[in-house]
Amino acid sequence: MMVEDGEPEPGSLPVPPAASGEVASPEQASDQPDAVPPRKLWFDWSDRDQRVLLVLALLVFAGIGWHWIRWRSRGVELVEIRRLPQREYDFKIDINQATWVEWMQLPGIGEVLARQIVADREQLGPFQQIADLKRVKGVGTVTFDTIQPWLICSGCKIGTAH
């Protein structure tokens, strides 16, 4: 409540100027927080900046769509990539000179078997014919028949036709 001279009664709460119908002075307005805080937008962009960005993005997408439609209407086909057929091995290895790395290039021969072939050749001497390769533990008929087209034997007296 107010006393007639405009001073509040002792012990009463002060009345804000808006509630009392009085117009607040600039000094009083700066002391009071705004009722509605300003909206936080994208990167503190204003509504206008966001609308401009939206219009620009729509123009870019419209241009991309227009170019795509124009390109498709020309009847241009997609590029077809032709690949050469996969080639089989076109090398041969000499069974008496090949390293274990060369043996590993053949189908069905892993590192362990390749090392066993080289170790067998070093222990028992060079192979006399290609069929002697079967003496190595792990080289069976199936493995031998698989790798035989890629084998040659220099210095062999028998079985060098491959």
Question: What's the topology here?
Answer:
Elements lengths: L16 H4 L5 H6 L15 H27 L19 E2 L5 H5 L6 H14 L16 H7 L3 E2 L10
Parallel strand pairs: 1-2
Average of pLDDT: 78
- Helix and strand pattern: HHHEHHHE
Uncertain runs are none
Radius of gyration: 46 Å
Total beta strands: 2
Describe this structure in words.
- With 162 residues, the chain is mostly helical.
- It has two domains: 13-76, no CATH class; 93-152, DNA polymerase, domain 1 (Orthogonal Bundle), CATH 1.10.150.320.
- It has six helices and two strands; from the N terminus they run αααβαααβ.
- Strands 1-2 form a two-stranded parallel ribbon.
How is this structure best summarized?
The protein has 162 residues and is mostly helical. The protein contains 6 helices and 2 strands; from the N terminus they run H-H-H-E-H-H-H-E.
Primary descriptors:
2 domains; two-stranded parallel ribbon; 6 helices; 2 strands
